[in-house]
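Progress note, sequence design subtask.
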């Protein structure tokens, strides 16, 4: 890796959020991005997330990310009713649709366009295995950042480099 390598960062927001929630940990994106970007030629950083309403795009969290130079890519969450198997209670929930596809599309598009030499993916989602394989076929390198408890071997073995967020947790915790 050279300091002249062009780098793009692709963050799967809900994957990071769920992983942090599992650990009862709050991440400081200011600190985390500072570590990811240090001594690198970062061309662009994307953050992908599902949102309940279009107004959410203007919330404090997204404004903070935009202030850090992050481009926000959102899709509206889809409302679904789920029924409890034990008691039959019906509850309304929201699910993401299209977020992984959006991140994968951007990852592949920019690889084809030679926009980056190294693509950093912040996620442990195995849905990214096929696009990672294609990106590597194009001669681009893939660096993966994920929490240890969420990363499966199949995805881990597809990346050129794997870094564990757990190893820097003391440096990126939100106060």
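Output:
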């Amino acid at each position: 890796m050279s300091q002249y390598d062009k780098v793009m960062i692709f963050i799967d927001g809900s994957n990071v959020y769920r992983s942090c929630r599992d650990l009862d940990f709050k991440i400081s994106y200011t600190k985390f991005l500072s570590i990811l970007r240090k001594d690198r030629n970062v061309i662009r950083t994307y953050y992908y997330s599902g949102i309940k309403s279009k107004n959410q795009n203007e919330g404090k969290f997204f404004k903070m990310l935009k202030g850090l130079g992050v481009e926000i890519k959102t899709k509206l969450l889809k409302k679904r009713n789920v029924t409890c198997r034990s008691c039959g209670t019906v509850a309304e929930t929201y699910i993401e649709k299209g977020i992984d596809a959006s991140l994968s599309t951007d990852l592949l598009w920019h690889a084809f366009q030679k926009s980056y030499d190294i693509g950093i993916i912040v996620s442990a989602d195995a849905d990214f295995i096929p696009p990672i394989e294609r990106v590597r076929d194009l001669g681009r390198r893939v660096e993966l950042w994920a929490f240890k408890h969420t990363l499966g071997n199949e995805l881990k073995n597809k990346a050129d480099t794997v870094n564990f967020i757990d190893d820097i947790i003391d440096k990126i915790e939100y106060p």
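DSSP finds seven helices and eight strands in the chain. Work on this subtask will continue into the next period as scheduled.
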